[in-house]
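Record type: monomer structure entry
Structure origin: computed from sequence
Chain ID: A
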Amino acid sequence: MQTFDDIDVFTNGQIHKHQHIEIQNGKIQYIADAINKDSDTDLLLPGFIDLQIYGAAGKLFSAEPSLESIRIIEDQLLREGTTSFLICLATNTPEVFNECISVIKEYEKDSRNCMGLHLEGPFINPEKRGAHVKEYIRKASLDEIKQLLDFGDGTIKMMTLAPELQDDEVIQYLLDHEVVLSLGHSNANFKQATTAYNQGIQTTTHLFNAMSPIQHRAPGIPTAVFSHPTAMASIIADGLHVDFEVVKIAAKMMKERLFLITDAVAECNSGPYQHHAIDGKFVMPDGTLSGSAMTMLQSIKNCVKHCDISLTEAINMATLNPAKLIKKENEIGQLVVNAEANLVRINEKMELQQVFFRGAEIKLN
């Protein structure tokens, strides 16, 4: 049994000071007030959850789809405190998708913090493609979706698509097969987006980026998700993809329906997605802004320091909120009895001190 005594703990949406925690068999067994309350303590958080990340440690998974690559990505993300993630694939050829899916299928029995795949495309709107390759974008057919999910064999957990260009039967088939659908890279108007959320599309990919904007006579996708009672959205809080003042507005409007993603990529000089690091950001060869260079802890810090978001709300945006979207809030995303002992320890400066995955400490260096 492993114990933490006299430590502040983020649980049930609040910081509880001077707590005692016991961990056994990789799960939290007991949380209560500590007997000794002598010291200024660090803060223990749930491990971070990133539902959209392309790579880490110099490995872009779609460019190097191998067991070695995903293991290196897992290791790096664990060292950063991300204890659960979906590896993301941008719009690409069927051959690349199948190769990446094959690796994840083979790796699944040995995976640790990688929960599966998020397919961001290819069924998006070319008018809002952003850094995605236009030649690979297409409309989905039901037969293609059936074949894709059959080949994926449960590894495809999430998909970003443009609902205004897809048939209702395609969207319903994906929902019936428990794929989390995200409205993104879309030019849907307010009515189309609202209809899609009412149909069952649960969330929105990188809010404000690559979508119809808010205009006073054309409210667009952001207004639709703001107004909807249940639709969620991810957001990239690096100050580059979305200005911090706009992140602040989104957090005030959406509260627990907003969650953080890093959308992080890695330096890559080959293939269709050549990401080049320039001045703390990644761009394509033509200068188009691509993925971020963020970690999840940096995202939390930005929310607190620049977006007028409380620490408790920012932590939830990186933990509990995404866990609820994928219906795993009883297993990950919060520190409660019987949840996985995925823990991040930070000091008062929000600096990373320790990471634990299923109760085992991760070496940070």
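Annotation 1: The mean pLDDT is 96.
Annotation 2: The radius of gyration is 20 Å.
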